[in-house]
Amino acid sequence: MTVDVLAPARDRETTTATTPGAARDTFPKLLLEHARVRPVRPANREKDYGIWQSWSWAEVAAEVGALACGLAALGFRRGDKLAIIGDNRPRLYWAIAATQSLGGVPVPIYQDSIAEEMAFVLDHAEVRFAVAEDQEQVDKLAEIKARCPLLERVIFSDPRGMRHYGQPWLESYANVQQRGREFAGNDPGFFRGEIAKGRGSDTAIILYTSGTTGQPKGVVLTFDNIISCATTAIAFEGLTDREEVLAYLPMAWIGEHIFSYVQAYCAGFCASCPESQATVMLDLRELGPTYFFAPPRIFESILTQVMIRMEDAGWMKRRLFHFFVDFARRVGPKLLDRERVPVAHRILYRLGELMVYGPLKNTLGFSRIRVAYTAGEAIGPDLFIFYRSLGINLKQLYGMTESSVFLCIQRNGAVKPDTAGGPIEGVEIRIAEDGEVLFKSPGAFQCYYKNPEATAAAKRPDGWVHTGDSGFFDADGQLKILDRARDVGRLRGGALFVPKFIENKLKFFPYIKEAVVFGDGRDFVTAFVNIDLEAVGDWAERRNLAYASYQELASEQAVYDLVQGCIDRVNQDLAAEPTLSPSQIRRFLILHKELDADDGELTRTRKVRRRIIAERYEPLVEALYSGNATGRIATEITFEDGRRGEMRAELAIRDVETDLPATQPPPFKKAG
Question: The domain at 9-198+239-287 falls in which architecture?
Fold first, then answer.
């Protein structure tokens, strides 16, 4: 019997939403198929007021149907764009599916975007409708609505604080769904009929790049692009509908979209949303995901928290931790790759699992992980080895928004800390004469929205796409990415200069949150450093070092000594590699403020905007190369409420000894 998907799912046992064997080439079609095949299996969870709430696939189909019909009642038409702004919430994921059900195009926007950044995307993408999570996002939209004449309707999900908002263009999510149920009552076949019109070649989504070198570009991806790559990756790892993922990264980022929406809909597994960004680690531990994805900065942050806690532990516990972790570095990756390991080492590793590795993974929420990925930028080899040494099957993958993410994935048993694996099925990769990585893939983007010049520059008529990355294949056929091609340079003496490689080594230390190195066309390498306020603050408190602000802590000579110790370790490591030895850091300073996306210094995905930083901090760069002992700077800063101010500082510059003897650095960073 066929049952209306808009009927309350809890009042029925089954639902027949699609015809078995029908084409499942769009996400709304996949949604209806899951509602038919696995109606009571969980599709989404959300933690609210400390309690996890779940929605089955049948219930999600009903929620999406009500919203889609409500949008249609408001005048949403095929081809319209709908912006989605907010933290990870099931309702916002349903808005993506509802938009696609009507033949519209969802346009996620970073939730921490300032009003001006949001206005650019809304205007450029020609957005008519927007779904905003809460009052904060509505306020930003209200501020810029006059500058976005195409924006007709804003739908808010969370009603808290919205009681006295009476603008005629505002609608509550619940009211739109109620209107949708009434609409469906008058036209019961509308929802399924609209879904049936969709084709795999239709535009599925427009995702805006992070804008590392300029204004973001809208990447147009079809259902065929995304589904083909996602299903290949699912088969590659043997994922099933029993996986659990935590949806916590920005919804506007391609990585989050692929892992928490695309692959969830393709495989039928459950994506769960944390209560807030502040509770992610607690929620991660409670959920215990089997499939996990995080950019390197997340893994760096987690390890920093571990090291801080260990420094606050007792003497015996610290010694035990460092002994077993150092031992795991030598044995753990081999065991994970099923290599031969002496029996005595296996027994000692099992003991470490019982006493250290197991409890640590349980505390982090990593006990059930079958496969974990990191991508977005290169991860430091030491950081990568740390997690694999604990028995966590962490892999690197290589991809980008323009490729629907998946280009290369590391295979089980062939995981290296400095490569991204080989091309997945259907993907071709070649290295251009200048070292740039090019690819062909079923997931290759269609175009940059309303930007034919940029499209022509990135995508050749023969289908090959420029990545902008510099890399090569190693002897085992695995791709090794050096850096962004535009960032790889040469020192004045001709030696290779790869800034990201050096920066990743610096950021492995818990005290260094961000680093920017300079050297292209210069005689030697210098560095800006951002300290990690939490890690260095904890270190300072244990030494009774008083401070009142980030700026004050960053200027302390003891903190300079601490950072110099980290740089000395990096220089020792660089000295061991002949091609990179000339890139040892000779001078550095600690910035008086944290690099901030609101100030345009980082992208919304926390990538460094090198050109902007070099221009904004030019007096400090020149001071590093002038031989001066200090550098002066006046920088404009943006406060949380949007006000702007100026911060002036005179920063100490520290010289560092280079050409140190090449010694084996400690296997892991150790606080204290």
Answer: 3-Layer(aba) Sandwich (3.40)
